[in-house]
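Illustration: Glycosyltransferase 2-like domain-containing protein.
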Amino acid sequence: MSTSRILARGAVATPRIPGNDYGVLSAPAPGSWEPRLSVSVVIPARGRQDRLDLTLAALAAQTYPAHLLEVIVVDDGSAPPLRLPGIAPEHTRIIGNASGRRGIAWALETGTAAADGQVIHRMDADIVSYREHVEAHMRWHHLADYMVVTGTLRFTAMAGTPPTPAEVQIAVGKDRAGSLFEEDPEHGHDWIGELVATHRDFRDAPSSLLHRVHVGATVSLPAALLREAGGLDTSLTLGEDTELGYRLTQTGAVFVPDAEALGWHLGTTTAMRRPADVRRHNDPFIADRIPYRRHLRTDAGRQWLVPYVDVVVDAGDASFEDVRASVDGSLASTLPDVRVTLTGPWASLTGERPVPLDDPLLDLRLLRGQYAHDGRVSFAERVPATSAPAPFRLVCPAGWVPGVDSLAKLIEQAEKDDEGLLLVALDEDESGVLAARLERTSAVARAMRVAREDERLDDVIADLHGATWLDAESWKFRPAARAYPYWAVNRNREAARWKAAAESRAKESERAQRQVAALKAELKELRAKAAKGSRDTVRWKEKAEQRRLEAVALRQAQQRSLLGRAARRLRRLTEGS
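Result:
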């Protein structure tokens, strides 16, 4: 079956795409195919009626069929309120933000809730799109139902008199949108272009980079995929597009930066005008929500909203001691952002309790008592399908303990080749191999999306993202009996001891640096003195040479004087005789 075949009107195939290599699909050229999916263009807007008019005029000249296109403008508290201009797509409406809420995230949530399209195309209110812009986006959504498509923007400083909406509609309709404005040479999304080019049009981009191109100015995705990811994070006032892009990666989405989905951005963005202020504002919120931003998670002793890895330990049939060993060993990881999920029949722990020491559910009760108030440990009845939004999950059999750096090194190994699954062989008996599993959330989600009923999920993960077997000893997994004496100490005391040792080494290093600085200063002074002595030597040598030359000249003058007197005396004697 061709990966580009439409199954039925409004239904889309689910082809197998390895990693982010959307090149396995054959995208049709604009104008050479029959669109069938409906799309809702959602535009959050506040003020700037003049720019919104140009945006709607360009959308009124799109090649995408008008009966499949609706435009929803969400007025985010404009004063005066925005109005619907004379030139706009046929199915265009302006609605207010929900419950008086403000901000782009709330506006987008309001717009998508009101949208009827099978695809949501988010667009800013200052974008003048080229004639085939929407069609270029939509061709990908007809090929697969888990695509996230971003457009390509050219920036203009809006110098001189801007075109009228009628002029924009005519130029876009005649495929002359490129002549509407002068490109701003000082501004642009060059960093996106470099990122895309470095990774072969983003086809071999690693999972940890995919969300970086998800900028909100023009991006489209299936409405069902947006709901699956959880919609917009309305608690964010900036950076909501980046955060959504991250969660979309964990659904197994494929990101397509389409160079043919062109558009003009009218003026510059806030991030371009005030980059340092935007980073300062966004960093705390992004650090809490996007574990891939490792450089933002360097603070010691912190806990984060979204963990880097979720360690799942099944407590159903295991002893309290075995489960505790696995949990505590995982929490002692060198990674600062680990969460543990304990699975088991927790609902069976009712308020009625038998004799405490003979309780048949004693081990479960002890585990609940041990970790009920640890914010890093949660309880679940069963293993969830994925650990989203955490990007990694380690399924660790109870009674096995990862080393302090095992989690960090496993993730580093997975990231090196962007692998979807690492299996650590722990033990083997007649029933098979007992293994710990490091799963990449996005790879599991993708495999679940495309796997057939008769396929093993691990085989699909291996096919699309890769899978590797590892040995327990090399990756420092130990049975609880061997691990407990090795690491079961007071971690706070150990941390304090190592911190004190580090501080001591730091002080020694500081003293050594001061000594080196003093020696350098002394050496500099000696070199200066030596240089001065060398200059004095040269000067005195030059003076001595000058005195010598003067003495030679004087002697020569004296000799000439003596010879002259002798010659005169000789002449007088000769003349007298």
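Reading the tokens back as a structure: The CA atoms of residues 103 and 262 lie 26 Å apart.
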